[in-house]
Amino acid sequence: MRLTALVALVLGSWAALVQAEQILVFDTDATIDAGHISTCLRRPHDDPRHCIGLEATACSDRPSDAPNASVAATRCAYAEMNFWQGLMEDTVALLTQNLRGASLQAFQDQQSQWQKTATLCDFPYNVIQAPLWPEAEATRCELRRLAERALQVKSYVMDYLDTCEFPASDLRPGFTCKP
pLDDT band at 112, cuts 50/70/90? Predict the structure, then answer.
């Protein structure tokens, strides 16, 4: 019962449930409307990836004190990345608290492999000799990559944990699936 309430809270309000030291906060002067992304994610459409970049784009379109559009776009992308990082950390915590055995090990291995790909967005932006533009492009790449992983991990909770698709022996004792 307690897990069902926790799942509902994570999937419904997207509230940050993990401790601050577990959430990577990207430095930014920009602000976004996280509720706008949450509303988008609750809409019945085929692909929740349509919600990625939604607020970064809206933020970039607003007047800013940034010295130029590239800096504003980078700040806005970082602001949205904070939302997706929080979502991913919440759902990772939910999985690691409720899985055990082979399922937990497989998820932890997968998460570890994903974390090792952190530099995928560096090239070609780290070798381009233009001021600022490469950083904005690399940041947008990082935003897409992080958000897609957050959605993937969230789908594990919705599609497998909630429906008890994991072997019963790999679920923590006392875990109750949704009907």
Answer: very high
Higher per-residue pLDDT: 101 or 13: 101
Structure confidence by residue, pLDDT tens digits, 124-134: 777 776 665 67
Query: Does the pTM of the predicted model rise above 0.85?
Result: no
Question: If phi over 0 gives left and psi between -120 and 50 gives alpha, with beta otherwise, what is residue 47?
Answer: beta
Phi, then psi, of 176 in degrees rounded to 5: -120, 125
Instruction: Tell me the C-alpha to C-alpha distance, in Å, between residue 56 and each of 7, 35, 95, 109, 129.
Output: 27, 13, 28, 31, 25
Give the 3-state secondary structure percentages of the chain, helix then strand then coil, rounded to 5: 65, 0, 35
Q: What angle do CA 152, 155, 156 make, to 5 degrees?
A: 95
What average pLDDT score do residues 133-159 get?
Answer: 87
Interatomic CA distance for residues 115 and 4, integer angstroms: 28
Identity of the residue numbered 11? L
Question: What distance in Å separates the CA atoms of residue 57 and residue 24, rounded to the nearest whole number?
Answer: 21
